[in-house]
Amino acid sequence: MATASLPGLGPDMSKVNFGFIAAIVAVATIGGFMFGYDSGVINGTQKGLEAAFDLGKLGIGINVGAILVGSSIGAFTAGRLADRIGRRSVMMLAAVLFLVSALAAGAAGSSIVFIIARIIGGLGVGAASVISPVYISEVTPAAIRGRLSSVQQVMIITGLTGAFVANYVLAHYAGGSTAILWLGEPAWRWMFWLQAIPAAIYFFALLIIPESPRYLMAKGHDERARAVLARLFGQEEADRKVTEIRSSFAADHHKPRLSDLLDKRTGKIRPILWAGIGLAIFQQLVGINVVFYYGATLWEAVGFSENYALQINILSGALSIGACIFTIAFVDRIGRKPLLLIGSAGMTVTLATVAYAFSTAVTGADGAVSLPGNNGVIALVAANLYVVFFNFSWGPIMWVMLGEMFPNQIRGSGLAVAGFAQWIANAAISVSFPALAVSPGLAVTYTGYAIFAALSFFFVKAMINETRGRELEDMEG
Predict the structure, then answer these.
(1) Looking at the 3D structure of the chain, how many domains does it have?
(2) pTM: predicted TM-score of the whole model, two decimal places
């Protein structure tokens, strides 16, 4: 198969099979698309859920947050399961879970059935969120690993935006999210059913990509790993990598296990795991998924119509994709840590601005809420700038770093724990938001997110080491 070379990336890159790598990265990142779609589809369905299941604010929070219960379990289980049955096998399992969830959530006749369906989808989201990045990091060259791993975030945002667009088109065509669309069913149900199409594509596409060579070597399948590496990087590089990977595992070459996360000398949790957990948690404490899960409800709460609120979601999604493309272009030039620091500073300022704008909200005689003067525009601009800062920094970089920062021996276990922490934090923020938006209110809630953004800056300064250009076999911790 033909190979290609890129200038300025080192002599070994001339033998890299970029076409093959691009193809398998494209397939693996469909998991990111599913992650995004499954997370974002709920955004335009909340009126339908409220009407169908007679839900109050707490009920909406539970139905929206149900996916996060499954996601936390899925992330933890997938990290460990990937060390047992392989990265590709776990991604295929995730595809099946996405398909089942899409069909069941759309058909749900009660809140309980809907919650169960969303938990099933969450298992798939959690699995895809941790396994796709680690798979990509294990099949790509160090010199361009950051930009290829960042494609995962582009696909997550593309999935979110795809859900926003689908929700808007279906609701607009039907005359509202609760209006009847096709086969006597309301539009909000079709928003879930559409997800079955990309879920099926994901499953069948996974059949054509190879298993991770680092997983194969962990299981003792050295020759299969050598064959995959040769196809990726050429035979000479494959022979060298087999030797490097073999020596990177523990001295007794035992299979990866959760106890490897403890330092053998001290018996304490390895510092690299604390760094991974911190990255995972801070990515959620800045409140990004409030925008993605509750965007339509949020903008309606401060005076925008449902139709306009859904259009704002699409704008946010488009800006997010643009920000991620910036990251792809510069992450392997600028580095991971500088982008995280810039993102933390930018999010602090923009979140504080959003909080100020919401603090001026007034309620009219008819009970409608609005932002006086130009404060609605200020809130809209600041919120979208916040989305941009997040998506060229913490959005993609957190997943890039979790996929590459752990040594081979603990990568699966480290991802399991950090991924679990990420989704628990996601659940805490997302489920609490509807109640917090009422009391103490949007201004105080967004001030809290701004404080966490400021704290994330100092966390990165103190705890995060640069991984740009380093081989996975050289990672320490």
Answers:
(1) 1
(2) 0.71
